[in-house]
Amino acid sequence: MNREKILSVEDLSVRFKSDEGIVNAVSDVSFELAHGEALGILGESGSGKSVTLRTIIGLLPRNRTDIRGRVRFDGREIQDLSNDEMNAIRGARIAMVFQEPMVAFDPVFTVGEQIAETIVRHDGSSWADANRRALDLLELVQIPSAKRRLASYPHEMSGGMLQRSMIALALSCGPQLLLADEPTTALDVSVQIQIILLLRELQRELGMSVILVTHDVGVAAEISDRLAVMYAGRIVETGTAAEMIEAPCHPYTDGLLSSTVLNATKGKKLNAIPGAPPDLIALPRECSFAPRCRHVQQQCLSGIPRLEPFGKGRATRCLRVSEGQLELQSANPAL
Ligand SMILES: Nc1ncnc2c1ncn2[C@@H]1O[C@H](COP(=O)(O)OP(=O)(O)OP(=O)(O)O)[C@@H](O)[C@H]1O
Ligand SMILES: [Mg+2]
C-alpha cells in the first residue's frame, strides 16, 4: 500500500461569526492521512468534527467563516483553489457521506438516475455506460435486487438501503478520499454494523483513504487505523486505534472509552463523564477539559497544553504527559 500522504491539515482554526460572538469551532487542528489509511475522529456533540470535514471538502460559506491554517490535498492547498477547481475535486476526488441520506438525494428522481447522472457529469460517459456502472455500484454496496432498486425513488427505500445508496453515489466517481460524517447514527444497531463492515471492506478493496466521524468508539475502532479525539474544537489525543483503546492517555479519551459498550461488555461499569464542554464563544485560556477532569491540578489552569508527541505516532494535550507525570502503563513496550 502506498503510504504517501494524501491529506495534511496544519494548524487549522475555523471561526464563525454569530449574534452572540465569535464561535471557535475548530482550533489548531493538525493531522495527516496516508493513501489507503482510515482515520476515526471521535468526540462529543459540538466538538468540531463536522466543521473539520466540511473545511476539507470546501463546504463552508467562505464569506461568513474565518479559516486559518493549511489543508493540503494531494499536494495542493485547498484554500488556494477557485470555486470551479474545488467543485471539480468535490465528488470526484473527495466525496462525503452524511448522517442523513435524504440530503444527498433529490426526492423527484430515482436513485439510479441520480447515480448515473453524477457519472455522466463527471466523465462524460454515455447514459448506457453510466446506468451499467450505477448498477455495479448498487451491487458493490450490496443492495438486494439492485437492478430493481435502480428504479426506486429515495422515499421507497429503507434507511439502511438509502445509506448504502448514498455510499454508492459517493463512490460513483472513484474518490481517493471518502469523508463519512456519522454515516450510521440514524440507523438500527444491526444495520449500523452492516454499513460499517461494508465501509471497511470497500476501503480495503478500493484502497481509498477514509475519515470517519463518529461519537461511537466501537464504530471508530472497527474501521480505523488511527484515531483522533476532539474536545472543544481541539485534538486532545491521537495515535493508532489499537494503542489508544488499549491505553488511553488523555483523561477525556479515557472517559469516552469507559463510557462505551466496548468496556461494558468487559464487565466495566458505564461511566458518563460528568459536566459539559466549554462555551466555544468564550473558550478558556487553559486546558478546556480541566473543569471535568479528575486529574486536574494547578498547572492545568496556567495555559493550553501543547499536543505533545510520545511513543510511536501518539500525541496528547495533557500536562501529565508533557511533564512526565504519567506512567504510560501499557502492555506495549513501544509506548
Ligand atoms: N455555520 C455555523 N455558524 C455558527 N456556528 C457553527 C456553524 N457550524 C457549526 N457551528 C458551531 O461549531 C461547533 C462545532 O460544530 P460541529 O458541527 O463541527 O460539531 P460536531 O462535533 O460535528 O457535533 P455533532 O456530533 O453534534 O455533529 C458547534 O458549536 C456548532 O454550533
Ligand atoms: Mg457533526
Shape: globular
The number of distinct structural domains comes to 2
CATH fold title of the largest domain = Rossmann fold
Strand order of the largest sheet: 6-7-8-3-9-10-12-11
Look at the structure and name the CATH superfamily of the largest domain.
Answer: P-loop containing nucleotide triphosphate hydrolases
Mean pLDDT: 88
Q: What series of H and E elements makes up the topology?
A: EEEHEEHEHHHHEHEHEEHHHEEH
The radius of gyration is: 21 Å
Largest sheet: 8 strands, mixed
The CATH architecture term of the largest domain is 3-Layer(aba) Sandwich
Proportion of residues in helical segments: 25-40%
Q: What features would you describe in this structure?
A:
By secondary structure, this protein is an alpha/beta fold. The chain has two domains: 5-93 and 175-322, Rossmann fold, CATH 3.40.50.300; 103-173, no CATH class. It is built from twelve helices and twelve strands. Helix 3 (111-123) packs across helix 4, helix 4 packs across helix 6 and helix 6 (159-171) runs parallel beside helix 7 (189-206). The structure holds adenosine-5'-triphosphate and magnesium ion.
